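Structure ticket #2291
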Amino acid sequence: MKRFFLIAVVLSASLNGYSQGAPDYGSGLKFNLNEEGSKYLRVLAWNQIWFRSSEMNPGTMINGEEATTSTDIGNRRLRILLQAQLSKRYMIVTHFGINNQTFTNGGAAGTTGTGGYGQGKKPGLFFHDAWNEYAIVLPEADKKFSLSLGGGLHYYMGLSRLTMASTLNFLTIDSPIFSWPLIENSDQFARQMGLFAKGKYGKFEYRVSYNKPYATNIAPVDVASSDLAVAVDNNGNTKWSKAGYFEYQFLDTESNVLPYKVGSYLGTKKVFNLGAGFYNAPDATQTSVAGNIDKHDITLLSADVFVDMPIGKPENKMALTAYSVFYNYDFGPNYLRNLGIMNVGSADPDFTGDRALAGAGNLQAMMGTGNIWYTQAGFLLPTAQEKPKVRIQPFGAYTYKNFEALDKASSQFDIGANFFIDGHHAKVTTQYSTRPVYTSPDTIEGQKGEFIVQLQIYL
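Resolution: structure written out below.
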């Protein structure tokens, strides 16, 4: 990979809280619909392009050929978001785009083989968010309490800060994915359709929602005894889910105009928050024992802490960012789900060695019944220049997973750096990540690695 180009067609602009580390950006492009500016439309557009060098799990083939490594380029996210504020109380949000297009997959439904609609080509746009909301109690300066109600396809999914993270300002290169525990099963790209309420009471922020999960129908494997049962996603006549996230913001308060939680403010705010959340869906998974079907609730709990603040001498513009979260997941007995971001590998039918338990490519045990502890931290390096050409933010992350379906717990690491050209609006991120390779529930055959360079522009 000797050189690359990122071409961004800029349609748009920023929203409150989206200008971390880019003081020249201002409020972005805003279309006022009346003279006072109380009615307006804002547009946001962003591209995230990934260049990767990946070690494949044992037993992998790519496009019909045996493969132990892969290098590729892919469209991680190409998105557009529209926010229409029709009055002080009424707002509509529409967010659409594509994700995860590679040279082998991520194309439109039914694309396969060779040709104009071959594998990986012409991905279809779809809605990520589409909701409207009404402010019952306006968030005005002389009031401690605010309340808004809304409904539609929304991102107020509770559980944790990372579950509702903005994809524009991650500290690391991306989400660890297990923070979206229902991803593309009973949700649509981390969203469900339903009703939500949000607001503040002084330093306390709350978000709750009542949603109709998307239907799942994976058939459970019948086993002889309950200790062998493995829960799978099958919610039958779907029952409504409940979710919430509650946070106390000890220092600066954060904007809650939109649900997207900031990953790194680059020292532009002083933030110290403690949060806790939950998600519950009745009868959301099934097991089969001796021909009898048992239903199980999905109950997910979390607690987290977030710190982001300037440190040292003000003229050096240094900042510390840190986040830690603990998840307790219960999907039912021995539930385990394997995922890999933009996985280009498939199973090699002729492989004779010990295959990865998770499957081919970069698949890994991502989420399951059990516990996950995740911690990340980054440091914005000092600069003596008033307007430096590049700011550098090295970071690292650690993940501990202990799942009921696996006899051994695992650890994995991420290390990398952000190179900010214009805050989060234009940046290059590099990251090296490890993942454990299980060949049986009690055997980890070492680690595989993946190196990613991301080019991001959002405006």
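Closing remark: The chain has one domain: 30-458.
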